[in-house]
Amino acid sequence: MSTSIDTLINTTTDPGLKKIAEKVRQQIRISDEEGVALFEKASLPFVGALANFIRERLHGDTTYFNRNFHIEPTNVCVFSCKFCSYSRLYAKKEEGWELSIDQMLDIVKSYDGKPITEVHIVGGVHPKMNMAYFIELMQKIKAHRPGLHVKAFTAVELDYMFRKAKLTVEEGMKQLHEAGLDSLPGGGAEIFAPEIREQIAADKVDGDGWLQIHETAHNLGMHTNATMLYGHIEKYQHRIDHMRRLRELQDKTGGFNTFIPLKFRNQDNDMSYVSESTITEDMRLYAIARIYLDNFPHLKAYWPMLGRENAQLSLSFGVNDIDGTIDDSTKIYSMAGSEEKTPAMSTQQLVTLIKQVKRKPVERDTLYNVVKDYTNMDFDETIFDAQLN
Ligand code: V47
Ligand code: SF4
Predict the structure, then answer these.
(1) Are 268 and 336 in contact (CB under 8 A)?
(2) Which of 78, 125, 262, 264 is the best mutation target for the ligand 2 pocket, counting ligand atoms within 8 Å of the beta carbon and taking the most?
(3) What mean pLDDT comes out for the span 219-248?
């Protein structure tokens, strides 16, 4: 491993890039200017080699996945993000769905007896689904299955809920946490820089508000994820600005688990005129995120969005986690034109996907505790395990 980074340093002629490679070898943080320079000047093999060096230093070949399912309470939303193909405006009342608490509980019950460790609950911002509604949902899920980790609500949903209930972020977060909310997913971050955010997501919580909600969760001992919606109208400096704000908060709290870049998809939304990023650009983004975010333990590729083969490729560009089995509908992506129309993969399929690119599949829980190492499990055993689920 060190030989290949030494070779990279010795053969790089650009002094700025050589200095970045030297910093990576010595575990020294790169600056914002260096982050932008990587986007502007570095080749795909260069950033890939550095990102893979970091990935293998942190995790070796281990590639995590988890067994989870999604619940989307509603696609009705009071906001109007231009990139969103999913929401149905409250005022128009068209094509929207709203699940009752009992319907959501029935979804949870349909996984009884299955070795699922997490439920991921995210949806639109429905004006009638308030704090009381979601507190009741949390309590009922925990009463039914106390061991199930509840990862729920983007900072956008939380900001709306807390403001409507006239609660401070701290009060609101405490109430939900006590009711059973274990951690927060990373959605709603989009791009923090106001000059871009105002053009694509003008009416929801701003970047500072998103960060304050995650900081409050961290201070209560909860872990959270962070996303970045990329590949639309943002420039390289906006990506680095976004990651700098995350890196600074992580220095302060250490509460982020994983960074999840989300590739903008352009089907059926108000930004369909914007073309999508290429796979090369996607891999460069993953690699640069791995290099820049030196204090984030994990980098996740969300396979339903990227597709299975590209998710495999990303494992050579810094990614060490490919999310979960997701055996329920995740409509926010399929409606925006993602690679996977009905995202579901069995444990066996995920294990095979990871083994095909010579990495080690390890099932984790939400907090990255190892549930099961599939590395030395032969194929038949894997099939047997999948049949059990
Ligand atoms: O915030 C919406 C994105 C996010 C589009 O924490 C789009 O484990 C691309 O945050 N093209 C919600 N992306 C989903 C999310 C998430 C997903 C997977 C795992 C985790 C986690 C969190 O979906 C939104 C927005 O950034 N999104 N529309 C679109 N057209
Ligand atoms: Fe609503 Fe989320 Fe879609 Fe924005 S991205 S319109 S907040 S569902």
Answers:
(1) yes
(2) 125
(3) 98
